[in-house]
Amino acid sequence: MNISFLGLFNYWVVIILMMTGFYVVIAQGNLVKKLIGLGLFQASVFILYISIGKISNGSPPIIIEDVSIYSNPLPHVLILTAIVVGVATMAVGLGLIIRIKESYGTIEEDLIHKKDLEVEKDLEKEIKNELD
Fold first, then answer.
1. By C-alpha distance, which of 105, 40, 115, 50 is closest to 77?
2. Which structural domain, as residue segments, surrounds residue 26?
């Protein structure tokens, strides 16, 4: 069985997109960039499932004479549903980022953690003063 590089092109695209999205999620501190990285990762999964669902020389699953190889439409249908869910999830994520920006004044992860620690220390000081 001789499989060439071009025969696996779609899988290489999946790997590159997946690793790029994963890197963006891990390496970036900006929440919007993290969300874009998740979108890239998600797109790579969509491409993977669509690639798996296609069979060379496969026919649509309609019973016709002289056709014995059929492509499974289920992965394509599931990906349509996943795209809709992904768009809705992205919208919720962007809405949360807007609320975080309003509350903290930033969308940088490090600054948000820093502000949380400052608030936590202030609360500990207040509790300690009340107990004394």
1. 50
2. 6-131
